[in-house]
What we know:
The structure is a single chain. By secondary structure, this protein is an alpha+beta fold. Helices cover 34% and strands 18% of the residues. It is built from five helices and four strands, in the order ααβαβαβαβ. It has helices at residues 2-8, 23-34, 53-62, 93-111, 124-133, and strands at residues 45-50, 74-81, 114-119, 140-149. The protein has a four-stranded antiparallel β-sheet, with helices on both faces. Helix 1 (2-8) packs across helix 4 (93-111), helix 2 runs antiparallel to helix 4 (93-111) and helix 3 packs antiparallel against helix 5 (124-133). The chain is globular. The protein starts with a helix and ends in a 21-residue tail after the last strand.
Amino acid sequence: MIIKAIRDRKSIRNYVPKADVSEAQIKELLEAAMLAPSACNSRPWEFIVVQNREKLEAITKIHPYTQMLTTASYAIVVCADLKLQSGVSEGFFPQDCGAATQNILLQAAELGLGTCWCGIYPKEDKVRAFRSLFALSSNVVPFCVIAVGVPAEEKGSRGFYEESKVKWIT
């Protein structure tokens, strides 16, 4: 049930070091991402799957809020290829990549994996540093990095329904 995955999803910052997350599980996350809606079905996303410890460490030096990558099994860097958007779809990559990212987070929750979404775009210094680290062309925008692993912590729910934030027009 989708509401269970939504309720179970938490930002995990502590992972079981060297925990086994399979390539098949990562592919499930990526499939979920690629099933996300996008403007005019432009599907502007690209994904960089990082398991290499040196690259994970390099990310933590670029982005101060990614320290959880020291114990996470993987990082997935969600990127947008601006060449894939034009006309009506141009400029909608943040929504498109955001939807793909949320699908990764929800699929991970369903699989019992932990994740943490760390934004890159629109911080130009981080965009430049990630482009450099992964030798990305100027038309590719690193949007976010997602830590993936087996959670070493349990967290309670932080979200809840607030009627005061809803305006009904009847």
